[in-house]
């Protein structure tokens, strides 16, 4: 059975069938339909004694003599195994293998919206919850503002609705200020870039109404474009203004300069580090000659002036459709340093870390499974 697991686990299922009297040497098409359906679709999980290497007759004889089995094995139907692997396995390769035995299709009842008909009958601004979840946050905010203008009555229900809508607008305002207005509520978390995820988490804290809290952040600007860093700094300012304290481990000079107090550890790494070189207002670090951070904060960096390399060849990509990339074509020089830049969420990781890797691997005859591979991505060419 192709959908069975490989190696020992697949052999285990085969030996269980032998114990149950299934002739595993009979061609599949010659097995009774009832037997084939049970192997593929059963929801039962029977536990059977397993005697590795024995035929069914030898197994029965061993049981009759009271011989102890090699072990007791539990059977799982092929469909149940595939579904469990796809939904619960921590291995991307195992999930990808399971998905190769599955066919996805829209539900005929909800048409892929994952809600029952009663829930989909409830609408807001002419859209049900599934339709709203597909809209960018900035469009949802516009719909909420329009609805708020129409809530003019003074009854209890209207007042309650006003409070809910105003709270939603305030929460979305924070995310818009962090530059996340293009995200949809239906966007899977695993498709977010590190910068997007970091800002989302900060956005939830800004609206938490907590004060007197000490937040410890480890390199919050990691992976952020300078434009996104400014949004991050506004979020940090919001936490400070709410009466909280921030301890930030950081390398980005823009974030370091925003601090009111600096702690510099060094001077180097490993055995040559481990000392607190300075602790005080940022300006005081100028006097600490041992600091490796000081020149990057206070001395302008000289740009390296070297002759540009000439490309040794070119890598031509066309028809790339992956996450938010749509029919992208690109020429990449080889033998030179190529920098791919853009704001967080613009598609850099989708282009280079996923689509490019997958397409090149496929062209070389070595398909590479990626977490967010899409059917559209399979159409890309090299």
UniProtKB/TrEMBL annotation:
<keyword id="KW-0677">Repeat</keyword>
<keyword id="KW-0238">DNA-binding</keyword>
<keyword id="KW-0862">Zinc</keyword>
<keyword id="KW-0479">Metal-binding</keyword>
<dbReference type="InterPro" id="IPR027417">
    <property type="entry name" value="P-loop_NTPase"/>
</dbReference>
<dbReference type="InterPro" id="IPR041552">
    <property type="entry name" value="UvrA_DNA-bd"/>
</dbReference>
<dbReference type="GO" id="GO:0005737">
    <property type="term" value="C:cytoplasm"/>
</dbReference>
<keyword id="KW-0227">DNA damage</keyword>
<keyword id="KW-0228">DNA excision</keyword>
<dbReference type="GO" id="GO:0005524">
    <property type="term" value="F:ATP binding"/>
</dbReference>
<dbReference type="Pfam" id="PF17755">
    <property type="entry name" value="UvrA_DNA-bind"/>
</dbReference>
<keyword id="KW-0547">Nucleotide-binding</keyword>
<dbReference type="GO" id="GO:0006281">
    <property type="term" value="P:DNA repair"/>
</dbReference>
<keyword id="KW-0267">Excision nuclease</keyword>
<comment type="similarity">
    <text>Belongs to the ABC transporter superfamily. UvrA family.</text>
</comment>
<feature type="domain" description="UvrA DNA-binding">
    <location>
        <begin position="4"/>
        <end position="98"/>
    </location>
</feature>
<keyword id="KW-0067">ATP-binding</keyword>
<protein>
    <recommendedName>
        <fullName>UvrABC system protein A</fullName>
    </recommendedName>
</protein>
<dbReference type="GO" id="GO:0003677">
    <property type="term" value="F:DNA binding"/>
</dbReference>
<keyword id="KW-0863">Zinc-finger</keyword>
<dbReference type="GO" id="GO:0008270">
    <property type="term" value="F:zinc ion binding"/>
</dbReference>
<keyword id="KW-0234">DNA repair</keyword>
<keyword id="KW-0963">Cytoplasm</keyword>
<dbReference type="GO" id="GO:0004518">
    <property type="term" value="F:nuclease activity"/>
</dbReference>
């Amino acid at each position: 059975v192709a959908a069975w697991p490989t190696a020992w686990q697949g052999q285990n299922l085969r030996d269980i069938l032998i114990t149950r009297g299934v002739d595993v040497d009979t061609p599949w098409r010659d097995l009774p339909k009832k037997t084939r359906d049970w192997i593929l679709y059963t929801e039962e999980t029977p536990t059977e004694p397993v005697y590795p290497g024995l035929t069914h007759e030898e197994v029965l004889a061993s049981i009759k003599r009271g011989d102890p089995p090699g072990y007791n094995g539990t059977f799982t139907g092929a469909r149940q195994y595939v579904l469990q692997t796809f939904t619960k396995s921590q291995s991307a390769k195992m999930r990808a293998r399971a998905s190769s035995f599955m066919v996805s299709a829209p539900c005929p009842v909800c048409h892929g919206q994952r809600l029952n008909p009663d829930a989909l009958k409830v609408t807001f601004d002419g859209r049900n919850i599934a339709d709203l979840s597909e809209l960018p946050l900035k469009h949802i905010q516009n719909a909420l503002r329009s609805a708020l203008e129409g809530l003019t009555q003074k009854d209890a229900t209207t007042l309650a609705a006003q409070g809910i809508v105003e709270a939603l607008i305030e929460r979305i305002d924070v995310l818009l200020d962090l530059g996340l207005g293009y995200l949809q509520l239906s966007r899977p978390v695993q498709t977010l870039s590190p910068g997007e995820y970091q800002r989302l988490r900060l956005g939830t804290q800004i609206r938490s109404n907590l004060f007197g809290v000490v937040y410890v952040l480890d390199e919050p600007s990691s992976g952020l474009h300078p434009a996104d860093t400014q949004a991050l700094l506004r979020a940090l300012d919001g936490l400070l203004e709410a009466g909280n304290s921030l301890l930030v481990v950081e390398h980005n000079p823009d974030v370091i300069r925003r601090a009111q107090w600096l702690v510099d550890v060094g001077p180097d790494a490993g055995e040559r580090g481990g000392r607190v070189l300075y602790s005080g207002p940022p300006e005081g670090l100028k006097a600490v000659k041992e600091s490796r951070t000081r020149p990057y904060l206070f001395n302008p960096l000289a740009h390296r002036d070297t002759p540009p390399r000439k490309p040794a060849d070119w890598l031509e990509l066309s028809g790339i459709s992956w996450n938010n990339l749509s029919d992208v074509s690109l020429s990449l020089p080889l033998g030179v340093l190529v920098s791919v830049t853009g704001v967080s969420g613009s598609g850099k990781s989708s282009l280079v870390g996923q689509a490019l890797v997958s397409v090149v691997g496929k062209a070389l005859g070595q398909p590479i499974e990626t977490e967010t591979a899409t059917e559209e991505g399979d159409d890309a060419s090299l």
